[in-house]
Every structure is written in C-alpha cells, then in structure tokens.
C-alpha cells in the first residue's frame, strides 16, 4: 500500500514524462525521501534535499525541471549547476535522454567553444559548472532572463574554500535577477542543513534513508576492522558489523590486497589517490597483477577487456590514452579530468556494467 502511494504514475506530471521514467529508466516507485520532497518540488517551492549518496537526489531535480518548464512556465529555461566537468557530462547525458523524449533540448556549459555557446543560447535546460555560470552572468546576463528553475547539485560544497564562494555568489545573483525562479539544492547530509535552507527560503527535506548499506572500515597492516554500518532501509540485516579479518597479500602493496579480496568476492572497488599521476601509476601497477590473475582464472574476460581497450577513443593519439588502454587490458582503469569526455564516459559505462 505504501509503495502504491509513491508510484510515479500518480505524480502530477505530463504523461510522456511518466512514461519515460517507467519504461526507459525502469522507475515505477519513488524512494521515501524522494516522495517526501514531491509536495514542495512540484508545488514550485524552494527545496533543500539533504539525503545520503545514491538515494536519488538527481531524480527529484529532474522531476522538478519537467514540471516547471513543461507545465508551470512553458518556454522558460532551467539551469543545472554542478561543481565538476565530469559531473556536468554525466548530468548532461541523463537530461539529454529525458529531454529528447519530451521535446526539450539540453546545453552543456563547461568551456568556451563556439558550438557550445550556440547551444547555451538555444537550449531549454543548461547544465554547467559554477565557473561557467559565473562567466555567463558577468558577460551575457541576458541568458538568465528566462530562467524559471535552478538546481544546485553538491550544494554542501558551499563550505569548500575553492568552489563555495563561486556557488554562493551565483545563487545570490540568480535570486536577484530571477527572484521568482524555483531553487532546488541537492546536498549530502551536513550539520547545518536548516541554516542553509533558511538562507534559500527553502523547505528542508532531511533523511538518512539509503537504498544500500554502507560499512566504514579501517585497513592497516593487512587487518580489516569494520567500524560502523549505515543500514539500508530495504534490508532486514540490521546494523550488525561484519567481524574483523586479516587479508592475504604483500604488505608492500596494500591496494592490491584490497583489490584481490574484492575479486574473490566478485565485486568492484574504487581507489582514490591524490593526483592524476598517482591515479595512472597505481592503475598500471594494479593492472599487471589483475591481468596475471585473470589470465589464469578467467581468460574469456581478458579477451573482452582487450576488445574494450582496442575500442577506446584516441587510443593511439596520446601517451595517456595508450597507458589507459594498457591498464584496461588488465581490468583496471584510471579516471580523472585529464581524459576526454568520450574516454571518461566509456570507463564509467564499463564500470556500471561490471
């Protein structure tokens, strides 16, 4: 009964939008915090949605955009602000799928190419970084004259010393230029959510609901010690921590020990490092070890990885692309802003597919 109440089919949206969400994206029911936000978002109110990662914040924003520019103010423009170029490309792809199904166009603002400038002028939805939006409002403020809804993704970065001031100024200017525009801010859960909501004159939707459990552990000297688990509302396992255990492998290469253990569990792992050079170096080191194991245990997968590496965009044009292809042959990839959009998209797609 609770699930039926949260059905996408019951939302106050155009039928073609609901049809796309249910058939193309397979979303038939909203998560509880998504549903809680619908009253405010579909009602046109400013909204701050502060829920854990992977709980579906972006979908709430997409729904708000569709209602605003298709129903409430047809012919107006939406602006979707993100902090990173890579994230802008991801949201651009999502929104392009959705908007093409309902007769809208999407522009991407992350540089200054002439083709990009034209799309920025003509699009119904503009996805851009804070820096690009800052430039547009300084030099071409007339583009904002028709904006009816603004989405600020990763809003908690307002506290970031490098990106926060630009985001704050952008939102302040937009509220001055377009005082009736709806603002939807998407944030991880932070300590002063209510203060941020008050600043935006926004309804606060705060929840710790998450679709999958998240376990925090420390790993030192080959010993894995679970510390905390945030349970999933969709699981009946509760908050029980896994027992501590010792992993096998060389102490000189702890990331390989973690990767090897992940392969044992038929899983995937993300390894974060401090620099682009470190990302490439670590990926190549891990690739050699993973390739050696896969060659013995799963030669068919090695062949598939080889095909994927050969199809990589610009593989023979730069040394970096060649290093990436080499790493991919061993089942590992590096990912950073120095790669082309096509390379990043290919890596992200392959990781999502397992």
The structural class is alpha/beta
How many strands, which pairing sense, and closed or not: the largest β-sheet? Answer: 7 strands, parallel
Q: What Rg, in angstroms, do the CA atoms define?
A: 22 Å
Q: What percentage of amino acids are in beta strands?
A: 5-15%
Provide the fold topology:
Blueprint: H1 2-5, H2 15-23, H3 32-42, E1 47-50, H4 57-72, E2 77-82, H5 85-101, E3 106-109, H6 114-122, E4 125-129, H7 130-139, E5 147-152, H8 164-177, E6 182-187, H9 193-200, E7 203-206, E8 214-220, E9 223-230, E10 245-246, H10 254-264, H11 276-297, H12 299-310, H13 319-329, H14 341-352
Parallel strand pairs: 1-6, 1-7, 2-4, 2-5, 3-4, 5-6
Antiparallel strand pairs: 8-9, 9-10
Please explain how this structure is put together.
With 354 residues, this protein is an alpha/beta fold. It folds into two domains: 2-206, Rossmann fold, CATH 3.40.50.300; 247-352, P-loop containing nucleotide triphosphate hydrolases (Rossmann fold). 47% of the residues lie in helices and 15% in strands. The protein contains 14 helices and ten strands. It has helices spanning 2-5, 15-23, 32-42, 57-72, 85-101, 114-122, 130-139, 164-177, 193-200, 254-264, 276-297, 299-310, 319-329, 341-352, and strands spanning 47-50, 77-82, 106-109, 125-129, 147-152, 182-187, 203-206, 214-220, 223-230, 245-246. The strands form two sheets. It has a seven-stranded parallel beta sheet, with helices on both faces. A three-stranded antiparallel beta sheet has the order 8-9-10, with no helix packed on it. Strand 3 (106-109), helix 6 (114-122) and strand 4 form a beta-alpha-beta unit. Helix 11 packs parallel to helix 13 (319-329). 32% of the residues are buried. The model has no long low-confidence stretch (mean pLDDT 90).
């Amino acid at each position: 009964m609770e699930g039926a109440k949260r059905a996408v089919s019951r939302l106050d949206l155009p039928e073609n939008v609901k049809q796309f969400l249910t058939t193309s994206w397979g979303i038939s029911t909203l998560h509880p915090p998504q549903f809680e936000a619908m009253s405010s978002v579909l009602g046109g109110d400013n909204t701050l949605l502060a829920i854990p990662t992977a709980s579906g914040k972006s979908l709430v924003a997409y729904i708000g955009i569709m209602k605003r520019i298709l129903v409430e103010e047809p012919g107006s423009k939406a602006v979707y602000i993100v902090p990173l170029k890579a994230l802008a490309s991801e949201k651009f792809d999502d929104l392009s799928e959705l908007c093409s199904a309902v007769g809208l166009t999407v522009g991407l603002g992350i540089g200054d190419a002439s083709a990009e400038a034209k799309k920025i002028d003509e699009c119904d939805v503009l996805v851009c970084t804070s820096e690009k939006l800052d430039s547009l409002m300084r030099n071409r403020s007339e583009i904002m004259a028709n904006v009816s809804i603004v989405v600020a993704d990763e809003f908690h970065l307002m506290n970031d010393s490098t990106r926060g001031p630009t985001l704050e100024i952008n939102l302040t200017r937009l509220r001055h230029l377009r005082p009736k525009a709806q603002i939807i801010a998407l944030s991880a859960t932070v300590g002063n959510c209510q203060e941020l909501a008050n600043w935006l004159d926004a309804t606060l939707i705060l929840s710790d609901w998450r679709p999958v459990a998240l376990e925090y552990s420390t790993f030192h000297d080959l010993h894995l010690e679970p510390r905390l688990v945030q349970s999933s509302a969709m699981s009946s396992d509760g908050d029980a921590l896994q027992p501590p255990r010792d992993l096998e492998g060389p102490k000189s290469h702890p990331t390989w020990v973690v990767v090897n253990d992940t392969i044992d569990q038929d899983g995937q792992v993300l390894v974060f490092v401090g620099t682009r050079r470190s990302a490439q170096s670590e990926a190549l080191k891990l690739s050699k070890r993973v390739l050696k194991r896969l060659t013995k245990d799963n030669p068919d997968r090695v062949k598939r990885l080889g095909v994927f590496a050969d199809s990589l965009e610009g593989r023979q044009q730069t040394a970096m692309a060649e290093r990436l292809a080499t790493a991919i042959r061993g089942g590992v990839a590096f990912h950073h802003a120095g790669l082309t959009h096509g390379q990043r998209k290919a890596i992200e797609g392959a990781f999502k597919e397992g």
